[in-house]
């Protein structure tokens, strides 16, 4: 009985350029497996590998999942996540602010990284445990009571429910 | 009756009826009915609950006549593979004949449960008008009806306790069908409308829930927003089983705290489901009741591992968990350490077609749960890789498995470490798990695994096989073994005529056999049908080659459905189905 190796660790192409982006590697893998599958169906006449052609067809009968789950997953594919929470972010000394979607981030580390890229500086908050004199900026936020607080003290979910806007200030001011 | 039991024959029928009323299981009542003619007569005349696993196995009028006192009936229609688009939509399973017979012969019917049947609005109308004491309507995986039919039920069934539409396909023709429950109607205990695609008027629902003070189960559809969920929960704090609607909303701290309080207020909540389009900010609202949960269905919740783990690791009393493979191996390790009372686990694929970004759920997750959860007995697991070693470990850890369904998404997948077929792994499962009742196979499998299954799976009742086996011997091992096999469903396997013909009498001991994309010919079907008059041999050919009666014996059969019946060939077959 024919079969093929679909181990994720096997490299399809040993001369694969390591700089290739992940998505094209996956495309290569998918193409190769389609090739192998078609080869299989030609060699064993009694088997009908109909599923491989119907793979992308919403009326597909494989894998065996029920209609409600099937339509939910398809719906998810077509629909963008409607939940966003954009807040204004200002850097001290820069008059023009930016906007950032807090819901697109998993937590403080993610947020710091994004802001670091956005404003091209290293930022710290009380969540980050590095104590480095090179850090020139601190992240603060305005809460629902109008007070300016250092970011990172409260759990992420609680932060999301009280934050109104963000400000990146110079360390000396704290 | 035998001499020494003559005293028993002097008991009036009512005494035996009373004795039989203590037999709760169908199997026990069936056994009692076989003892002697008297018991047969008394038992069936007093039977209150009847289960018909295949709606075509007996004529409705016959069933109604044989069991005149029935108050609760369960009728199942289409073969299981209909769930996966393998059965033509017009195949059959219509409920009319049953509803008409029941309306005529069981006026006191209280509970009706249909599964995979085609139920029309006319049927619903007839049900609504015929049974004055009607209490339970359950339509699971059904289709053919619309919300107009539901309106008729709502308007007329004054004592309705349960309306369950789980996984059904319902046309939306009547927008406010819920408003058809009259004002004095207060008896509702369970309502499951999660499958409805359209808008449900939340205000009308709120008024209904307010006056039904006994409501215990409420499963909403995705159209009910979080804001309205709060109102519903506040009016039904006694709820035990909640299916939320859409679980996200615009950022609103007040809504979050109102939702959290409303949920905390439901002190009896044991089962949670729904979670359509969940938003990260609102998921923490359920943390407070996690510890009391025994059942959690996150089947539709496309959230990542961290959020899933935060919820599930708080559910120390969980018995049943349904989740997406987004939980990943690390999440299942958390389940194994937090949910020590877990009995049933189902893991579904979040990306069944593309695997563009493969999720890191592998055999390790399954092994972890099998090791950490001593009461685990039912598993449904979708994944992309497996090893024999992992299956052996699962078999060793969990000899108490009663249901093991593994779906490795890519057919013919080998053990990715040894490159071998998965025969030894699955053999270990059937040899170790002596009480296994249900098994689904996947991956690369030869006839060897069927030899083990045939020999060891003595209590197996349902077996699902796809893309497996080498040839006829595989099927022969199954049909000549598996003493308690009831349902066998096979697709895309190289099984042909010989094992069917050699084991023809086995087929009469089973409820049904489904085979599609195998190597069966029309000639074998003809032979089988001739030899076994109490089997219906249905051949389904959708490619329209002309009337099957004219086709030669070597004509290949696309799909085959064989079931035992005392009703003879059915009269409602569509064009593509032919009873041989």
Note down, in words, how this protein is organized.
The complex is a heterodimer of chains A (174) and B (580). By secondary structure, chain A is an alpha/beta fold. Helices cover 33% and strands 16% of the residues of chain A. In chain A, strands 1, 2, 3, 4, 5 and 6 form a six-stranded mixed sheet that branches. Chain A is elongated and about 65 Å long. The model of chain A is unreliable at 1-56 (pLDDT under 50). Chain B is an alpha/beta fold and 580 residues long. In chain B, the strands form two sheets. Chain B has a 21-stranded mixed sheet, with helices on one face. In chain B, strands 5-7 form a two-stranded parallel ribbon. The longest helix of chain B has 12 residues, at 253-264. The relative contact order of chain B is 0.06. The mean pLDDT of chain B is 94. At the A-B interface, helix 1, helix 3 and helix 5 of A face loops of B.
Structural topology:
The complex is a heterodimer of chains A (174) and B (580).
Chain A: H1 22-43, H2 50-53, H3 67-78, E1 86-91, E2 98-101, H4 108-119, E3 123-124, E4 137-142, E5 148-150, H5 156-162, E6 165-170
Parallel strand pairs in A: 1-6, 3-4
Antiparallel strand pairs in A: 1-2, 4-5, 4-6
Chain B: H1 6-9, H2 13-20, H3 26-33, H4 37-46, E1 49-52, H5 60-66, E2 72-76, H6 96-105, E3 111-115, H7 121-130, E4 136-140, E5 145-146, H8 147-156, E6 162-164, E7 170-171, E8 190-192, H9 202-211, E9 217-219, H10 226-235, E10 241-243, H11 253-264, E11 271-273, E12 295-298, H12 305-312, E13 320-324, H13 328-338, E14 344-348, H14 363-372, E15 378-383, H15 388-397, E16 403-408, H16 423-432, E17 438-440, H17 447-456, E18 462-466, H18 472-480, E19 487-491, H19 497-502, H20 504-507, E20 512-516, H21 522-531, E21 535-540, E22 559-564, E23 577-579
Parallel strand pairs in B: 1-2, 2-3, 3-4, 4-6, 5-7, 6-8, 8-9, 9-10, 10-11, 11-12, 12-13, 13-14, 14-15, 15-16, 16-17, 17-18, 18-19, 19-20
Antiparallel strand pairs in B: 20-22, 21-22, 21-23
């Amino acid at each position: 009985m024919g079969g093929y190796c679909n181990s994720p660790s096997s490299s399809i192409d040993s001369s694969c350029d390591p700089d290739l982006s992940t998505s094209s590697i996956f495309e290569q893998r998918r193409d190769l497996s389609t090739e192998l599958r078609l080869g299989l169906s030609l060699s064993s006449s009694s088997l009908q590998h109909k599923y491989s052609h119907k793979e992308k067809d919403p009326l597909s009968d494989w894998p065996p999942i029920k209609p409600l789950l099937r339509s939910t997953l398809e719906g998810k594919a077509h629909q963008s996540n409607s939940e966003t929470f954009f807040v204004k972010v200002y850097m001290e000394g820069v008059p023009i602010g930016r906007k950032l979607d807090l819901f697109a981030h998993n937590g403080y580390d993610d947020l710091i990284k994004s802001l670091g890229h956005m404003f091209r500086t290293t930022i710290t908050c009380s969540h980050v445990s590095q104590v480095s004199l090179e850090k020139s900026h601190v992240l603060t936020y305005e809460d629902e009571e109008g007070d300016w607080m250092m970011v990172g003290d409260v759990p992420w979910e609680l932060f999301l429910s009280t934050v109104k806007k963000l400000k990146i200030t110079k360390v000396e001011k704290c | 009756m035998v001499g020494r039991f003559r005293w028993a024959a002097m008991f009036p029928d009512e005494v035996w009826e009373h004795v039989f009323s203590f037999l709760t299981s169908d199997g026990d009542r069936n056994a009692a009915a076989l003892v002697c003619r008297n018991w047969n007569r008394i038992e069936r005349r007093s039977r209150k609950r009847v289960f018909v696993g295949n709606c075509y196995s007996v004529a409705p009028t016959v069933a109604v006549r044989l069991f005149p006192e029935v108050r609760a009936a369960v009728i199942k229609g289409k073969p299981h593979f209909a769930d996966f688009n393998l059965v033509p939509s017009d195949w059959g399973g219509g409920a009319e004949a049953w509803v008409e017979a029941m309306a005529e012969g069981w006026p006191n019917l209280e509970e009706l449960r249909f599964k995979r049947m085609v139920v029309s609005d006319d049927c619903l109308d007839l049900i609504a008008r015929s049974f004055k004491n009607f209490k339970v309507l359950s339509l699971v995986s059904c289709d053919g009806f619309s919300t107009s039919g539901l309106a008729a039920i709502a308007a007329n069934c004054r004592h309705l306790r349960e309306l369950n539409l789980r996984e059904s396909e319902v046309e939306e023709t009547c927008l406010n069908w819920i408003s058809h429950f009259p004002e004095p109607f207060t008896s509702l205990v369970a309502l499951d409308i999660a499958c409805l695609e359209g808008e449900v008027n939340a205000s009308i629902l709120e008024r209904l829930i307010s006056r039904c003070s006994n409501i215990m189960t409420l499963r909403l559809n995705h159209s009910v927003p979080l804001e309205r969920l709060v109102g519903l929960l506040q009016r039904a704090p006694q709820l035990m089983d909640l299916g939320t609607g859409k679980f996200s909303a615009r950022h609103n701290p007040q809504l979050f705290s109102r939702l959290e309080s409303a949920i905390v207020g439901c002190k009896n909540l044991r089962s949670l489901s729904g979670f359509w389009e969940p938003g990260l900010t609102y998921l923490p609202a359920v943390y407070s009741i996690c510890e009391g949960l025994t059942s959690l269905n996150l089947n539709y919740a496309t959230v990542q591992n961290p959020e899933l783990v935060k919820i599930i690791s708080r559910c120390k009393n969980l018995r049943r968990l349904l989740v997406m493979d987004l939980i990943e191996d690390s999440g299942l390790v958390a389940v194994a350490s937090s949910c020590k009372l877990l009995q049933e686990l189902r893991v579904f694929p979040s990306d069944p077609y593309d695997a563009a970004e493969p999720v890191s759920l592998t055999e390790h997750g399954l092994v972890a749960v099998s090791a950490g959860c001593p009461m685990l007995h039912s598993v449904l697991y979708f994944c992309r890789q497996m090893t024999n070693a992992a299956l052996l470990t699962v078999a060793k850890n969990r000899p108490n498995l009663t249901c093991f369904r593994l779906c490795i998404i890519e057919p013919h997948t080998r053990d990715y470490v040894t490159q071998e077929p998965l025969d030894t792994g699955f053999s270990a499962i059937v040899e170790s798990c002596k009480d296994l009742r249900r098994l689904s196979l996947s991956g690369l499998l030869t006839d060897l695994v069927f030899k083990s299954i045939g020999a060891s799976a003595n209590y197996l009742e349902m077996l699902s096989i796809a893309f497996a086996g080498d040839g006829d011997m595989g099927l022969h091992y199954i049909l000549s073994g598996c003493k308690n096999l009831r349902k066998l469903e096979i697709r895309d396997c190289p099984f042909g005529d010989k094992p069917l013909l050699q084991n023809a009498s086995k087929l009469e001991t089973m409820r049904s056999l489904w085979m599609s994309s195998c190597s069966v010919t029309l000639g074998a079907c003809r032979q089988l049908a001739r030899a076994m008059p109490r089997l219906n041999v249905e051949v389904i050919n959708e490619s329209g080659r002309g009337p099957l009666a004219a086709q030669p014996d070597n004509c290949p059969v696309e799909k085959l459905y064989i079931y035992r019946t005392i009703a003879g060939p059915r009269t409602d077959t569509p064009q593509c189905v032919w009873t041989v």
